[in-house]
Amino acid sequence: MDGYARVIAARRIRTIAYSAGFLVIAAIAWLAAEIDLARLFANFGSFGGYFDRILKLDDGARVWTDPAEWFWGWRRWGPLLLDTLLMAYVGTIIGALAGFVLCFLASANLVRNAWIRWAARRILEFARTVPELVFALIFVIAFGLGPMPGVLALALHTMGALGKQCYELVENIDMKPVDGVSSTGSGWIATVRFAALPQVLSGFVSYGLVRFEINVRSATVMGFVGAGGIGQDLLEAIRKFYYADVSALLVVIITTVVAIDLVSERLRHRLLSLEMAR
User: What is the CB neighbour count within 10 angstroms for residue 164?
Assistant: First the structure.
């Protein structure tokens, strides 16, 4: 009992020490970020006032009283929204394929060469660490305005994010099938194809669907730096104080993201049910 009491006391001391360390770091971060609660509450009304303003038409009426006037630009916004969706789709496909290849090379249980693993992991880290907007600005300078810089930026960031998630998934697979296929004299590619891939394919697809949802939102922001899509019109409406247009564009974007989320959720559940049925 004395030994048990000492173990519990030591655990309690560690918990208190970790909690105190967390609070100290949080306090330092609070001061470094210059968070001013008085200023926050003093200006909160302006924040709410902006949202009240974007829900009014130019004549002062609420936007939902005249939907035709509210969504007057749907003929223009539709093609721009399609550009955004296609940009997110192509960027997700390219990035997912690149991340799919690199995740196997970065997995410690499939690749014994430390240099190959190191190189693959550093590439993935670089791709996911640099923000999409930075990549987009670089590609806009290199390739000019349009969807192409947005696609490349989304593809690079998707490669880094999915590659990280997927190689962690690969490192948790059951190695018995891998050992079994390897014992037959099969090469590395065949081993990955027939022993590792079947165990993680549904997870890869699920991660890819989630990433597509994220990329739709990111593709909208790409328009802020001239990478095409509906984001350019949203930025213009914000800059020119076209309040009703801002709310209309936000409704269009949010509705699209919600629809994609519902569809991808059904697909993920379908994949999960098929995996469990096997």
Answer: 20
